[in-house]
């Protein structure tokens, strides 16, 4: 008995740890399949022993709120749902009743209150008893009605979620790129609970209503009737189907066929009794309502052979194991790789090359390893980073072992510098977004800047990457070929030397008559003598080229590039010694960069802000009340239009 009691304690602790990591810390320490297996084992043990701990996830709903948002007690506890993976059990549960079958949206449950036809309050589910007040954020959800026809008090529940189609784009806009979210559910949770609703507004959060709690003065007999009424009030209701026992199987099959094309993340289905009075008469258990049940997809598994473990480095320094196995068909698609998440899970699975493993798609979407039949445990954890080759070390973070690159200059940690290198004013390489660069680095195709121009050797691998095909690969190769022919000024700017912007790079190139060897060898004194280059810039420039690794990077780049070092003294340096600031929209020049280029070609400088050193402010709206116009007028600086500028030419 004592052994089983201890087993219960261990399972409770592990399940709570996994749930806390997923819901509060946006990370995973075990697969969904493993969590469900442990949970079911815990339920069995509790029934057999009669022992249920106060901290057990079978009797506790959720976890305490951890943000600084205002808290509010729910009038009655918001319970979770009992679940099954069997359509037979689902049919037995429904019996002779009519039910409503709908998506179980994987997002954040929200309770909305309307008074006098206006959104009055929005509160998250929280731990089921206490939620967080997020009213300002709910007002900027993509599809939520601020005003509705019904004027009585209305309380309803729904799921806030972010569509797959928005996820990648929104994820890239998060300011803290080191903390990017792994899936739409985590991104939604972070978006809904922002302290600044402006951030929430940019995240395209949607609200899908799934339950009417109360509507003052209204009486309904069926759930479907409630759904129809909510739609008339302007709410988007979760997609549903009315079912009876004989139609349940085909309806479940319909949802299963559409889950992959569904734009909203879903982790199963919900079946609720249509007859409201009958459902309410059944009451609740300590955790579950008796009028509804969740259906979790019975994961389709396939047995295959593990071919290798690919170690994928990320911008945070984490090096994550990815299992590569013989391709198998799962849920209608071919799968050949799955994340193992971290070293702890790798060890728990006792993985080894050649092992026979069971794989599945969590929620029919994300490939995971369910089980290892062979358990040869013959893997060696790498001691070097797969990207930079420097030391990799195992660290323990919140009881989870992770592999980490110790090199601060690792390319995987320098995605921003790589993004700068390919940007328009630098090497101008189309088709390489930050997300794409991160994938290429993680797979070990890019170790140094010059490796960008060697990507052709990975044609087969890249064309099978998600979002890449033969056409996009050819477009990328063409963009790289065009970028190989460049100028010393562009190359200099692309290196990302502190304080060396586009204009300064051009000044240095011009002073050296476009000779790269001269540019690279400039002393601090020579740099400071160039008009527009200060002592701080000069010191940073010199420090960059004094580093052996930086010189090696440049030498490697020069082996791939064709530098146009031709130079002609430009006639008509009419703007020599003059500084311009450009603001407002342009009518004649394509963009500000085009106008800046003309100014610099004629010997002038283009600055970003108005100061005593400014000679002209270019603004087509001379009477504008902008801060730059005001500053120019205060300092007596002429404000000229594009036409005035063109006359000066």
Walk me through the structure.
This protein has 649 residues and is α+β, with helices and mostly antiparallel strands. It has six domains: 48 residues; 225 residues, D-amino Acid Aminotransferase, Chain A, domain 1 (2-Layer Sandwich); 105 residues, Nucleic acid-binding proteins (OB fold (Dihydrolipoamide Acetyltransferase, E2P)); 73 residues, Orthogonal Bundle (DNA polymerase, domain 1), CATH 1.10.150; 76 residues, 5' to 3' exonuclease, C-terminal subdomain (DNA polymerase, domain 1), CATH 1.10.150.20; 70 residues, Rossmann fold (3-Layer(aba) Sandwich), CATH 3.40.50.10190. The protein has 24 helices and 24 strands. Helix 1 runs antiparallel to helix 2 and helix 3 crosses helix 9. About 2% of the residues have low confidence.
What keywords describe this structure?
single chain, 649 residues, alpha+beta, D-amino Acid Aminotransferase, Chain A, domain 1, OB fold (Dihydrolipoamide Acetyltransferase, E2P), 6 domains, seven-stranded antiparallel sheet, five-stranded mixed sheet, 24 helices, 21% strand
Secondary-structure topology with pairs:
Elements lengths: L1 H24 L6 H18 L21 E3 L9 E2 L2 H8 L4 E7 L2 E8 L2 E7 L5 E3 L2 H4 L15 E8 L2 H9 L11 H9 L4 H5 L4 E10 L7 H10 L7 E4 L1 H14 L7 E8 L2 H6 L10 E4 L5 E13 L4 E13 L2 E7 L3 H6 L7 E7 L3 E7 L19 E6 L2 E6 L9 H8 L11 H9 L16 H5 L6 H15 E2 L1 H7 L7 H10 L4 H5 L3 H5 L6 H12 L1 H11 L3 E2 L15 E4 L9 H10 L3 E3 L8 E3 L8 H9 L3 E2 L1 H7 L1
C-alpha geometry: globular
Write out the CATH superfamily name of the largest domain.
Answer: DNA ligase/mRNA capping enzyme
Residues in helix, %: 25-40%
State the separation between the terminal residues, measured CA to CA: 94 Å
Q: How many domain units?
A: 6
